Amino acid sequence: MSQPRKPRPAKLIVGLLAQPGPCLGQALQDLEKLFGPIDFISESLAFDFSDYYAPEMGVKLERRWLSHLDLVDPGRLAEIKLITNGVEKKLASGEDRRTVNLDPGLLFLERLILATGKNATHRIYLAQGIWADLSLVFERGEYRPLAWTYPDYARPPLPELLGRLRRRLKDQLKELP
Prior knowledge:
By secondary structure, the chain is of the alpha+beta class. It has one domain (11-170): Alpha-Beta Plaits, CATH 3.30.70. The protein is 31% helix and 33% strand. The longest helix is centred in the C-terminal third of the chain and has 17 residues, at 158-174.
């Protein structure tokens, strides 16, 4: 019989999608207030994988990823997604007109799990309408996509960036009691 154990904490990452401008900066400030210091922010990349967000957020969107210094309990993923949804609503420019899209996830040594409000075959229900999406798995020295991984999470530069964050996470886990 397996014995339940408390999981090791994970590194909180957030994928940000927004128009260039002040809303992105405000989102970063809000995330730092809510989840502690940010220890990594990627360069801005053009989001040209899909026009899914264009009707709501416009075109020429930018994609960034960030991570927080403080590790989190994996059991908080649903709560974290609800909090980031609140930030999106706060920064919205009207009813159902987001200016920023925030995709929180947990980076583990073995995988990346994103939180979403959308069900799909491969997603596991967490709580309060939030699902866990296994997006990348770490094997043969790198994070690798799965058949359903979002294209901007499957392609460079994200797997390499996550590799750097994995090394940081590994060091942080060594420092835990």
